[in-house]
Amino acid sequence: MEHSRQDREVLLAALEAGKLLLENGAEIFRVEDTIYRICRHFGLTSASAFVLSNGIFLTSGDEEEKEAQFAKVLLIPVNGANLGRVAAVNQLSRQIEHGDYTLEQVREELKRIQNMPDFPEKLQIAAAGFSGACFSHLFGGGWSDALCTVGIGALLYLYLLKIGKPHFSKIVCNIVGSAWVTFLSILCHRLLPGTHLESMLIGGIVIMVPGVAFTNAIRDMADGDYISGSVRMLDAVLVFFCIAMGVGFMMAIYNSVTGGVLL
Amino acid sequence: MIKLMLQVLTAAAGTVGFSLLFGVPSNYYPYCGLIGSIGWLVYLCLLPASTATVATFCATVIVILLSRWFAVRKRCPATLFLISGIFPLVPGAGIYWAAYYTVSNQLQMALETGYGAVKAAVAIVLGIVFVFELPEKWFHYTSFSLPFHRKG
User: Fold this and answer.
1) What strands lie across the sheet with A70-75, from one edge to the other?
2) Structural domain boundaries of chain A?
3) What are A146-158's pLDDT values in tens digits?
4) How far apart are CA A43 and CA A40, in angstroms?
5) What is the pLDDT of residues B119-132, one digit of tens each?
6) How far apart are CA B31 and CA B85, in angstroms?
7) Does B141 touch chain A (CB under 8 A)?
8) I need a surface site. Which of A119, A179, A217, B35 has the fewest CB within 10 A?
9) Which residue out of B95, B113, B126, B141 would a mutagenesis test of the A interface target, given it has the greatest number of A Cβ atoms within 10 Å?
C-alpha cells in the first residue's frame, strides 16, 4: 500500500510538470518526454501518457499490480506562453535524470516554477511599444513612425492586458485589438503628416501575431502529433484572419466616413 | 551600409523585446537578439538576388540552425530562441496589405499580397520542418541522451 502511495505521488508530480509545460507553450513531444522521464526515474515503468494541445491523460498500472493503478485526466486551458517556465521545467527534468532531486524536492521545485512571477506589466507594455517601434522601422518606417509606434504598441498591449484577454473571447479580442491599432495609426497619420500609415500599422499588429502557436503547430505536425498540430495551426490561422479582419473593418469605417480611400 | 547596420541592430532590439513578452529569462537575451539580427541580415542580403519566399526560407533555416546550436550550448529548449528569432520573418506586412487591398476593392492586389504572405508562411514551415529533422549529433549534443528522446 505504501508502495502505491509513492507511485501516486510520482504520477501527480509528473502530471504537474506536464501541465506547466503545456500551458506555457511547450511542444507535445516535450510534455510526453518529461512525464516519462520523471516516471521512469522514480521507478514507474507502466506509466502511459496521452497529451493533446489542451489536455493530458495519464494512466499507470500493470497486470501483476506491482505498480499503482492510476488514471487522471487534466484539462488545461490555453493561456499565454511563458517560455521561462518551459525552460525551468526542462532544466528540472534534466536534473532529476541526474539524480539531484528527491520526490519531495521535485514537488517544491514545481511549485516554485508555478509561482515564478511574470515580468511586471509596465515592463511588458514598454517592451511591446519598443519592439513595435523596431518592427515599424524594419518595415520601412522612419523615426517619426517609430516614435508613434512606441505609443501604438504600448496602448495595444495595455488593451490586451486589461480589456482584451480577461474579458473577451480570443476572436473578439484580436479583431478589436487590430481595429484599435488601425484606429491609432490612422489618428497618428492624420495628425502628423509625413508619417507612413503602413509601417506604423504593421509595427502594431506584429505584437498580436501568434508566433508561439504557429511555431508549435509546425513542430507538433513534424513530430506526428497531428491532432494537436492542427488545433494549434487553426488557432494561429484564426488569429491571423482576425487581425486582417480588424484592420479591414476599421479601414472600411474610415473610408465610409471620409468618403475617400486611404494613403 | 549604415542603413543596413541600423536595420540589423533594430532587428536585434525588436527580437529582444519580443523575448521579454514571451517570458524568456533575461540571460538568454543576447542570443535571441543575435539570432534575430542574423536572420534579418540573411533575409535582406538575399532579397535583391532572389524572391521574398526564397529569402524567407533561407533566413528561417539559418535562424533555426542557430537556435538549435545555442539550445545545445545553453541546455534549454530551442523554442526559447527561435520563436522570437523568426518574428521579423513572419509576414505581418502581407496580412496588412491583403486587408488593405480587400477593403479598397483591389481584389487582384489583395490576392497577390495574400498569396505572398501564405508563401512566406510556407517557407517558414519548410525551414522549421527540415532543420528540426537534422540529427541531434550534428549540434554536438554530448553527455545527454535518452531511450525515447525524439527530436528537439
Assistant:
1) A48-52, A55-60, A70-75
2) 2-114, 121-258
3) 999 999 999 999 9
4) 5
5) 999 999 999 999 98
6) 9
7) no
8) A119
9) B95
- Residue B91 in contact with residue B120, Cβ under 8 Å? yes
Interface test with A, best of B3, B79, B144, B149 (most A CBs within 10 A): B79
Q: Which three cell numbers stand for residue B43?
A: 533575409
Strands (E), chain B: none
pTM score above 0.80: yes
Q: Report how many helices (DSSP H) and strands (DSSP E) chain B contains, helices first.
A: 6, 0
B84 closest CA partner among B109, B62, B67: B67
User: Closest chain A residue to B84 measured between Cα atoms?
Assistant: A211
Angle between helix axes B107-133 and B92-103 (nearest 10 degrees) is 160
What nine digits make up the cell of A117?
512571477
Radius of gyration of chain B (CA): 17
Report how far Cα A118 is from the mean position of its chain's Cα atoms: 13
- Label residue A44 left, alpha or beta by phi (over 0 means left) and psi (-120 to 50 means alpha): beta
Strand partners of residue A136: none
